[in-house]
Structure formats: structure tokens, C-alpha cells
Amino acid sequence: MVSTVLDRFDAVDILSHKCRNGLGGAAVDLTPENWGKVMALNVDACFRVAQAVARKSMIPRKSGKIINISRLLDLAAPGRTAIFSRSPTTPAKARSSR
Known about the structure:
Rossmann fold, 98 residues, disordered C terminus, 8% strand, elongated, mainly alpha, 3 helices, two-stranded parallel sheet
């Protein structure tokens, strides 16, 4: 996917993403499989895309920003949103080297 974007646009200046998939339900009722599916999208996929963009476009050019977007609901897990709120979209905060 990243290679396709770079073929068309030459570079990525800003990557902004928010992967969100929530199955809902109480944490005690979740299966390991469901937990894994949500984490694979909400954390792993966001990290892999950011890593690929950084390696292929931003680091070689010494320029670019990665913005991970979350929601206020992610600060707490009210009621039946446990799995949705516990899979952050920010696996690591991007830091500028400047």
C-alpha cells in the first residue's frame, strides 16, 4: 500500500490515521481471538503503516510528520466499551528530531 502511494505521489509529508474496530462487550466476556482481532487492527496495523511510511519516505527525506488520532472515550471504558477503549490508536507517540 505504501509503495503504491509513493509511486503516485513521490513522498508522504503527513501521515494521519485512526484505525478503530471495536467489538463491544464486557472485558470478562471477550475471547482471546476477538481481543487479538481488535488489537491487530487498532494497534498493529497503525504501527506497521507508520513504520513503512517512515522508512520509505520520511527518514530518507529527513522530513515528515505522523499524527495518531484518538478519542476522549479512550481515556475511560464506560459500560460495555471495554475492548473498544482499551485498544489505543497511538502505539507510540511520534517525536520530531528537530
